[in-house]
Amino acid sequence: MAEELIIPQHLSKEEKYKALIPQINALVMGETDLIANLSNIIAALKFSFNWLWVGIYFVKEEELVLGPFQGPVACTRIKKGKGVCGTSWLTQKTIIVKDVDQFPGHIACSSASQSEIVVPVFNKNSEVALVLDIDSEKLNSFDEIDSSHLSKITKLIATLL
Length: 161
Ligand code: SME
Hints:
By secondary structure, the protein is α+β, with helices and mostly antiparallel strands. The chain is built from 4 helices and 6 strands; from the N terminus they run H-H-E-E-E-H-E-E-E-H.
């Protein structure tokens, strides 16, 4: 297992994803514990992009429940259909929020968060098992480059479930 990430900070966002994804694969290779692997994936994303908050919410019965994350403390439970995370779960779609103040029902765990992306992860029955949530302190931080590369990471997470 690789124990140190190499992500030169001068790279473009796309180049960082391209450098990061093989390293994430190497990080989880040979480890079967889900929480250990998710924790390292979250740390790798936080370290590479220095976003405000990167974390997981697990689907547990009728709620999302906080899982491994890096960043400020966060709300622990979110109902289906509520906030960006609950809406991603309900619609089964990636949601990019360029300005959280413009998203009706956005749940502000941190007042510093200004934009957000949430990507659902599906289990073998094509149900949402968890969502990957990323918050930025800047407006407009996320676009199609993020959704396309993060969906590669969420597909990898799906193989770990
Ligand atoms: N903003 C999210 C809540 C989770 S925090 O961002 C960590 C939402 O609206 O679902």
